[in-house]
Amino acid sequence: MLQEFEALFEQVEFLLIAGIVLVLAYLALEHKEIVYAAFFFGFMASFVAGFFLLLEAPFIAGMQIAVYTGGISALIIFAVLLLPRAQDSSLEEFATGRKRRVSLMISGLVVALSATLALVFPWAESFDEEIVVDLAQDLGALAQWLWVDNGIYVQMIALIMITALIGAIALLKMDKAEQMISLRGESGIGAEVESGESDPEPEPGAESEPEETSVVEESEEADG
Amino acid sequence: MVPLSWYLVFAFMLIGLGAYGMMVKRNLIRILIGAEIMGNGVNIALVAFSLYSPVFTFTGQGLIILVISVAAAHTALALVLMLMYNRRYDTVDLGTPIEEEVV
């Protein structure tokens, strides 16, 4: 009797969290104000952690809250704040009705086919709770699996992450350096040197690229 | 006990919702949110498979730890690319600069 009640309670819990997650995911995609959309995504990530608790993976649930809610949604909110045009929801362009219907149809078809497969295929619908639950929640065993048995993969992931982050920083710096060079060419030191000697009007048909490259070369020599 | 098929159906619904967002939206931030929603759906399916497999191993949980770490890195990279796009085209809507060039 108690086990039946527990099973029923777990199913109700699942349906409740699933409904909340779906509504929050929809709001994260469709809410007009993009800042609110980012907040809704953060809330959705927190509720997804509830599924990991139901699936006997408390460490993953903690990690989900720390990384998705605390890290990724905060990053998205920072990006919204850094991009002034993104904050103005009146500037956002929305897809046409036809494209919306086609996308809805494609994604609906994919979901329907996958869900049919999930329901029809004879998956194992249960597991031995007495054995598996204790094993699944054993953090020491998880750490051993991750760091001792598969440590090389963790190191590979760490390398990928470092490469991605260094690449991101390098991209930003490169973009900034390009902007600095163009500024110097227009009104900086390089422009003064050029205009001091002679400031001829560029010919209508002439391209401005050779001048820019000479300014770049001059600035590089000066830096060197 | 919740059957495995329930988790899978829900995971596929999240993946479909994220895919819909990625197809329909033109705003880069919303496209990124769609990709993250899809990633969450995949994570749920992986952990569910791991728990309901005939012989329990930590493959699913370990994989999720790695996937979540990589998701954080790729989000940072995506945001940098977004900033660069905004600097170059002064918008975060995909497709706008191409249309302007054509006109």
Give a verbal description of the structure:
- The complex is a heterodimer of chains A (about 220) and B (about 100).
- With about 220 residues, chain A is an all-alpha fold.
- Chain A has helices at about 1-30, 35-55, 60-80, 85, 95-120, 130-135, 140-150, 150-185, 190-195, 210-224.
- The radius of gyration of chain A is 28 Å and the shape is extended.
- The N and C termini of chain A lie far apart (about 80 Å).
- With about 100 residues, chain B is mainly α.
- Chain B contains four helices and no strands.
Précis, in short:
The complex is a heterodimer of chains A (224) and B (103). Chain A is an all-alpha fold and 224 residues long.
Defining traits:
heterodimer, A: 224 residues, mainly alpha, Four Helix Bundle (Hemerythrin (Met), subunit A), B: 103 residues, Helix Hairpins
Topology diagram in text:
The complex is a heterodimer of chains A (224) and B (103).
Chain A lengths: L1 H29 L3 H21 L3 H25 L1 H4 L9 H24 L8 H8 L2 H11 L1 H37 L1 H9 L11 H15 L1
Helix pairs in contact in A: 1-2, 2-3, 7-8, 8-9, 8-10
Chain B lengths: L3 H21 L3 H25 L6 H31 L6 H7 L1
Helix pairs in contact in B: 1-2, 2-3
Shape of chain B: elongated
> Globular, elongated, flat, extended or rod-shaped: what is the shape of chain A?
extended
Order of helices and strands of chain B: HHHH
CATH class of the domain at 1-92 and 133-138 in chain A: Mainly Alpha
- CATH architectural name of chain B: Orthogonal Bundle
Overall pLDDT level of chain B? 86
